[in-house]
TrEMBL record:
<feature type="domain" description="GAF">
    <location>
        <begin position="101"/>
        <end position="252"/>
    </location>
</feature>
<dbReference type="Pfam" id="PF01590">
    <property type="entry name" value="GAF"/>
</dbReference>
<feature type="region of interest" description="Disordered">
    <location>
        <begin position="1"/>
        <end position="23"/>
    </location>
</feature>
<dbReference type="InterPro" id="IPR051448">
    <property type="entry name" value="CdaR-like_regulators"/>
</dbReference>
<dbReference type="Pfam" id="PF13556">
    <property type="entry name" value="HTH_30"/>
</dbReference>
<keyword id="KW-1133">Transmembrane helix</keyword>
<feature type="transmembrane region" description="Helical">
    <location>
        <begin position="228"/>
        <end position="248"/>
    </location>
</feature>
<dbReference type="Pfam" id="PF17853">
    <property type="entry name" value="GGDEF_2"/>
</dbReference>
<dbReference type="InterPro" id="IPR025736">
    <property type="entry name" value="PucR_C-HTH_dom"/>
</dbReference>
<keyword id="KW-0812">Transmembrane</keyword>
<dbReference type="InterPro" id="IPR003018">
    <property type="entry name" value="GAF"/>
</dbReference>
<protein>
    <submittedName>
        <fullName>Diguanylate phosphodiesterase</fullName>
    </submittedName>
</protein>
<dbReference type="InterPro" id="IPR029016">
    <property type="entry name" value="GAF-like_dom_sf"/>
</dbReference>
<dbReference type="InterPro" id="IPR041522">
    <property type="entry name" value="CdaR_GGDEF"/>
</dbReference>
<feature type="transmembrane region" description="Helical">
    <location>
        <begin position="194"/>
        <end position="216"/>
    </location>
</feature>
<comment type="similarity">
    <text>Belongs to the CdaR family.</text>
</comment>
<dbReference type="InterPro" id="IPR042070">
    <property type="entry name" value="PucR_C-HTH_sf"/>
</dbReference>
């Protein structure tokens, strides 16, 4: 075989030669790849070779190297893009793993989607099951307030179509696309934002669509399949974030509910313990025969305050009545008042002093103490009824049996803690409210008798039923008057029986054991006062014999007091009422000043001519003989009766 024949085989073939040339031609493109030059730069080596008149095979090699370099560059760009996408997805997943603020995570998803897809705007909408539409939740790059507040009905607009079909949709030109339903409100929002190309992918939780993730441009654009897939990945992460947030919310709500339940259990446990403590202490008091004041002292310790038992007449009327009606303790200023009742009878009240911030548990404790107090009072009433009968028998003996041995009377009174040697007042009481029938009247009398007996027992006195009412013999405290005692008794008994009670009192009496007949005389005097109050229209009031003087004799019996006053001075009374004048006052002062106009004008602080004019008017109303002795006596008596019949002032 000749050397020339072998030579071509040893020399590089055209392909081999081309490969060597390609390797030489690839050097500038490697440099371009290394510095990540733009696409335009890859034309420069070919253009330069042609400008220099290089051989065709050299230029062809450069063309092939250029194409290969561009393929490598495209592959590198794709890998960098996928790396950025994976990094963004990883960061989003990391954010989701440490989810604290759902809005912040959704905002980050929208921001990264916009950045990676290179769009002008990205936004996310969520479905509203209550309203049956979708609404904007997060936007990034939006400049239109109307667009940010859009709501899309199911099937309306591109987003409504995605939400309804659970499939991605993309439009290169929104306003020229008729695949979805256009509405004025949605189109106006899209137009305000200037959007043209829009891509929307559904947010899925299982088979359910909960919203839509969008990427949009303000120019025509074709979204590639990889970009649609990338936005779908972000949508999956957004759905997971929403689901996680919902689960966290439910978990926190459940934890809060459990905490609240535990708190309630702890509170109830404390309530049960306190209630058990109160029950044990009150039960112990009842078993060992404690009284109402012992109950008040025990509750004072439990409530860490001052609790007092007061009579019905001494507690504030309005809150006491409210407590009785409602069956609960009632706040009054800084105090709490719990009525102590037995049936329809008001026995008194428990008052918690200076404790305005009472919680429901302590309020219930005070109410329970009031119930125990009423039970104690009822239990003691059974024992007290026997004592009341004994008190009634003793008072009956003082009223009827006037020849009793004073020593025996004192001993009987001492056993009842009464002192017959002290100063007393005899009070005659009577119910004045209307009764519907005989049974109601009898029940009212029993309540009056019970209240009077209780009052007598607590005041170291005596009480007895008599003449359709009750009679009481009560000691008179130093500095007190029979009138004050009568009025207090009327108020107390009226409050206890819930209807007016009129009380007439005698003058103070003493030494009752030695002179038992004094009690009967005093009772007769109290009855006359009672009749006088009734004749004067002062039912429900209290007064003593000293309030009437000699008029008490005139008022006794059935006399027409009102008719007498009207016949005697009625024209003057009517004139004053019509004209607003002071003829009655002038007439009263005139008699009080000994018929002297000069002294009368000083008493009234008016001019003497004014007195003369008023008396002249009186004369025209009553007649010319109104100053005669007989007429003057009648007029003075009528004036006195008119004053007595007027409403009293406390």
């Amino acid at each position: 075989m000749s050397r020339d024949h072998v030579q071509p085989a040893e020399r590089p073939t055209t392909e081999g030669a081309t490969g060597v040339s390609d390797a030489g031609a690839g050097a500038p493109y490697l440099e371009l790849l290394a510095r990540d030059a733009p696409v335009e730069a890859y034309e420069q080596p070919v253009l330069l070779a042609r400008a220099e008149g290089g051989p065709a095979d050299r230029i062809a090699a450069l063309e092939r190297a250029k194409l290969l370099a561009l393929r490598v560059r495209s592959e590198l760009e794709g890998r960098r893009r996928r790396e950025a996408e994976l990094s963004a997805l990883f960061e989003t997943a990391h954010d989701l793993a440490g989810l604290r603020d759902l809005d912040a995570v959704l905002q980050a998803i929208v921001q990264r989607a916009r950045s990676l897809l290179g769009t002008d705007i990205a936004y996310l909408s969520l479905n509203d099951p209550a309203r049956g539409d979708t609404y904007m939740r997060v936007t990034e790059g939006s400049v239109s307030a109307r667009f940010q507040q859009l709501r899309l009905g199911m099937g309306e607009g591109l987003g409504g179509l995605v939400a309804q079909t659970a499939r991605p949709y993309v439009t290169d030109d929104y306003f020229q696309d008729d695949r979805f339903q256009h509405t004025l409100s949605i189109d106006a929002g899209v137009r305000d934002e200037g959007l043209v190309a829009i891509l929307g992918v559904p947010l899925m939780l299982g088979p359910h669509v909960i919203g839509v993730l969008f990427a949009a441009d303000r120019r025509a654009r074709v979204f590639e399949r990889e970009q649609i897939a990338l936005l779908g990945s972000f949508a999956a992460l957004a759905a997971a974030a929403i689901d996680t947030a919902n689960l966290l919310t439910e978990t926190r709500s459940a934890l809060a509910g459990l905490e609240q339940a535990n708190e309630i259990i702890r509170d109830r446990s404390a309530v049960i313990e306190r209630a058990s403590e109160v029950h044990d202490r009150l039960a112990e008091l009842v078993l060992r025969g404690g009284g109402v004041h012992d109950v008040a002292a025990a509750v004072s310790q439990v409530l860490d305050g001052t609790v007092e038992f007061t009579e019905a007449g001494t507690a504030p009327a309005e809150p006491l009545e409210a407590s009785r009606a409602e069956g609960h303790a009632v706040r009054h200023d800084s105090d709490w008042i719990a009525a102590v009742t037995a049936g329809g009878e008001l026995l008194g009240a428990l008052v918690l002093r200076g404790h305005p911030g009472l919680d429901p548990v302590d309020q219930r404790t005070l109410e329970r103490a009031a119930m125990v107090t009423s039970l104690l009072l009822l239990a003691r009433r059974s024992a007290a009824e026997a004592e009341q009968r004994v008190r009634g028998e003793l008072l009956d003996d003082l009223l009827d049996a006037r020849d009793r041995d004073p020593r025996l009377l004192r001993e009987r009174a001492a056993r009842l803690h009464a002192d017959l040697d002290a100063t007393h007042v005899v009070l005659a009481t009577r119910l004045d409210g209307p009764a519907a029938d005989a049974d109601e009247e009898a029940a009212a009398r029993r309540r009056l008798w019970s209240a009077a007996s209780h009052l007598a027992a607590t005041r170291q006195g005596l009480a007895a039923a008599r003449d359709g009412g009750t009679v009481l013999l009560l000691p008179l405290a130093t500095g007190d008057t029979a009138t004050d005692l009568a009025r207090r008794t009327a108020r107390h008994l009226g409050t206890a029986v819930h209807q007016p009670v009129t009380v007439g009192a005698s003058a103070p009496v003493t030494d009752l054991a030695a002179h038992p007949d004094t009690v009967a005389a005093a009772y007769a005097e109290g009855r006359r006062c009672l009749d006088s109050l009734h004749l004067l229209g002062r039912d429900g009031d209290g007064a003593a014999a000293e309030d009437f003087g000699f008029l008490g004799l005139l008022l006794a019996g059935e006399r027409d007091i009102g008719g007498f006053v009207d016949r005697t001075i009625g024209p003057v009374v009517a004139y004053d009422e019509r004209r607003g004048t002071e003829l009655l006052r002038t007439l009263d002062a005139y008699f009080a000043c000994g018929l002297s106009p000069a002294r009368t004008k000083d008493a009234l602080h008016v001019h003497v001519n004014t007195v003369a004019q008023r008396l002249e008017r009186v004369g025209r109303l009553l007649g010319e003989d109104w100053q005669s002795p007989a007429r003057a006596l009648e007029i003075q008596l009528a004036l006195r009766l008119h004053r007595l019949a007027a409403p009293r002032r406390h």
